[in-house]
Amino acid sequence: MGARPNVLLIHCHDLGRYLGCYGVDVETPAIDRLAADGALFENHFVTAPQCTPSRGSLMTGRYPHVNGLMGLAHTHWELDEGEQIISHYLGDAGYETHLFGLQHVSQDTDTLGYDHIHSEGNLYPGVSPSVHQANRARNVSAVVASFLERGGFDDPFFASVGFFECHRVEEKTGRFGFDADHYDADDPDDVRPLPYLPDRRGIRQDLAEMRGMVAAIDDGVGTILTALEEVELIDETLVIFTTEHGLAFPRAKGSCYDAGLEAALVLSYPGVIDGGERYGELLSNVDVLPTILELIDLEVPDDLNGRSVLPLVTDGEYEPHERLFAEMTWHDEYNPVRAVRTERYKYVRNFWQLPQVYLARDVFASEAGREVREAYTAPFRPYEELYDLRATPQEDENVALEPRYQDVRTELSRRLHEWMVETDDPLLEGPIAPGNYDDEIDSWPHE
């Protein structure tokens, strides 16, 4: 395979697979070109439908309840002591490591092991307008391009590049939108509705605004790819493009339905990964780290929860996943859910009495949320959900109680429980306290 490649990981917020190369009616020429030059994974899912827990899995190769990130970093959740992320592994292997833009894995960036941090306010996208500005794709990609063009770094390098888009922004009215003042929105009448939501004006309006952010992400990717080509590093660089969960819309972000767990994954490394290939195997974002490690010829630790897909893209011996697991524990509130997905079925186990569809705060206060929240937040959800994805791919018909699906329900329930036991899921012991529980207890008055 020759010398170790540079590794450039580009990630963004709340995008799902809303890209032209995934069949969506939106123009994303730069990412489409990256996919044409590399490999696109059609059934890549994440371990959690929310930012920090999913990003933690991407960076550690381990499930949220295994690495400790069961809630958002800015609400006092942190990786367990001793957890290693990509920058640690590659830094120990001699890579020069760089952080550009957002990371949202830890409040203490110094613990993440980067040699160089090129951004300010890189934790949370909703802190202030100045943080929005610094972490927009246009600005982050310009800094990355300048870094590449300036040179002077020691090869090989690892760069984590995080874009703010497509995160919703709180407006003065309290509504959460897609910052339409800074992006060119499309005409709502020209937008294809989301298949898992009703076709209503507010949802179309939000989609039309969001597409301006999608264009900004694509432009940022284009800026970086152009810079790689101009400095003649494109053939020496593994480029990974991904996102951390589904769109910031009802039944997507914050839910363990496919719309919440789906994510783009594109890998490009000329000469090693054949261009234009599309793979339909089930993949999880815990597979990304072991793939990187194997590709650069480092040992893959036994305690990672994922497996490398390098054999899949290089025609080696690859054992596909029979099932994927996902979870949610804390977000704006306690929402303990565990799920297992096979090629045909999705089984969801809810461990708390909650509304039918959980709506994260930014989704609840959006135009799309306003259209559906009365219907989605009134009835309570069942404790078990089972969906036949072949019959109802939008997961809108729960068949958990239907007699003809009882064998499937029993089998997937058993598999989910076994996974929780094997991975020491603390949810088996009862409700999980919030990330700042100890601090809150210490602040209580004591006699």
UniProtKB/TrEMBL annotation:
Segments for region (Disordered): 427-447
> Sulfatase N-terminal domain location, by residue?
5-297
Q: Which UniProt keywords apply?
A: Hydrolase
Indicate yes or no for the key word Metal-binding: no
What InterPro entries does the entry give?
Alkaline_phosphatase_core_sf, Sulfatase, Sulfatase_N
Q: Which Gene3D superfamilies match?
A: Alkaline Phosphatase, subunit A
MF (Gene Ontology): arylsulfatase activity
Q: In what ranges is there compositional bias, type Acidic residues?
A: 437-447
* Similarity comment text for this entry: Belongs to the sulfatase family.
Query: What is the protein's name according to its record?
Result: N-sulfoglucosamine sulfohydrolase
Give the organism, scientific name: Natronococcus amylolyticus DSM 10524
